[in-house]
User: Fold this.
Amino acid sequence: MTRHILDENEPATKAKVHTSQQAKKRLQKRYAKETRFKLMGLGAVLVAVLFLAVLLGTIIADALPVLRQHYVTVTVPLNAEEIDPEGKRTAQSVSNADYGGLIKAFAREKFPNVKSRREKKALYGIISSGANLELQQKVMADPSLIGQPLTAEVLLSDYADLYFKGSISDKTTIAVEGIASPVGTEGEVKILSTSNDFKNLLREVKQGLGEQLRVVERAIEGQSRVLKRLKDNKAKLEASLPTASESERVELQRRLDQIAPNKASAEATIETKKAEAADLKQRISINNATLSVGRDIPSYVIAINGGMVKVKQVSNTEIIGEAILPLSTEREAPKGQWEITQITPPEASRQISDAEIIWLDHLKSQGLVQDKFNSQFFTSGASREAEVAGIWGAVIGTFYTMLITLALSFPIGVGAAIYLEEFAPKNKITDLIEVNINNLAAVPSIVFGLLGLAMFLNIFGMPRSAPVVGGMVLALMTLPTIIIASRAAIKAVPPSIKEAALGIGASQMQAVFHHKLPLAMPGILTGSILGMAQALGETAPLLMIGMVAFIVDIPGATGFAAGFTDPATVLPVQIYMWADFPEKLFQQKTAAAIVVLLMFLVAMNAIAIILRKKFERRW
Assistant:
């Protein structure tokens, strides 16, 4: 064997290899790669945090308006002959009175000029349809109120509430300079001005008509493109007919027959829109014209002499409108005592009419509208009326469902994990069981819903939409997660703990339950609670067993035990149902319910962390 003999120059040569310019460049390149990798990782984290912040910010911003609710103070007479004609003065005897009629009478008293059936229906609609139930509950709770006026705060409708929150319309005051002279106090009212106030208003109306004209022109352009495509397709199909086979001709003719009605519809639409555009151009071009203020452009309201006049027609010198609130007098109003208000968007584009806005503003000016904390959202159940709907029923249903899930999945899952890890023989059967448990953890949750539908409802005949069934389905879904997490926690305990216990005479059962299991308990609890948190957010399996039903009553109202079999829903399903409703207030309540669900999840994860710290042992 040849021995390598180092000469005195060799260390210098090695040092030169690591300190040369090439080595320094390689080192700089490596450091640069590490820096880029760190920056990419940091960027990925920042992007994830940004998306999370945007998501949470959007949800919370939509949910915050739900915390406040607008009420109107009503004063209604509780005449004994109407409320309790039998004179019994009991909750049962006063429950069937016409409390809705009392609310309507209050509205008519506040706005006596509202005469038509259509206007009355709109007026009654600004107060929640659940207001009669609020009055009923107050009288049933205290029948001694009968015989005297009752003053109570009742909910406004969802659109009225959204209006006061600024979610429906915007109002802009237009400056006025002259003296206004009204003619008439009710119905149709004419107002003249000594300045150019109406000229400015006419210009605003023309601008609105111009915006409407541009919309019509864009519609004409769109329909023209559609018509051109239809004509091109028709020409191509007709050109292909002479050379086509018999079967192809049948298909081509069928497609031609489909084009004909679509072409006729597009042509008719274009003609209608062109006539509408021509009319708008003519109205805009006339300088001294009297223009009608339609529902497709912003609305204008004039406040004068204690009344509110909605502008119907406007010219340079006068307006003609409808007195939504009657004027107190026809006297002239100088500058500062009358004003013009623009309401946007146009009346046709919002859910609340100009008259309803005026009525609501009048009630607020009288101090009858209050903005309060919306406790009803947290204490009431589901409802078709957005302003009345709450999450308490879903919260109670979630509690009962999770209680069943925990009571079934935790002991069974932990017991199965202990047996498989410590007592089961290692053979093909246990290997097959382990593989199936791992596979079940990856099965889509809706499959467990189908299993619950087939087994618990169809075969065993258990109650539909009940927490006991929902809890059993979620327990089946959660079991694989708890078993896998528990086995991992037991396996993480050093074998020396069990061996030491066996060495001093402990039995197999004692070594597992007295020594190994307590050390594995933090991991078991953590895995179990995380599995429960996953079950808390599930919707699909509960939909399959009917928990999507509309449930008004609160589960367990007749007793704690009855709550397990009472019809119920849960928070994820309630969120799913509300998200499908078109009303804006339901969309806001969906966001609020999501926040509540997230708080549940955060609380469960916090419990997992606390339990882990409490039971954690070091060895």
In short: The two ends are 52 Å apart (CA to CA). DSSP finds 20 helices and eleven strands in the chain. The mean pLDDT is 87.
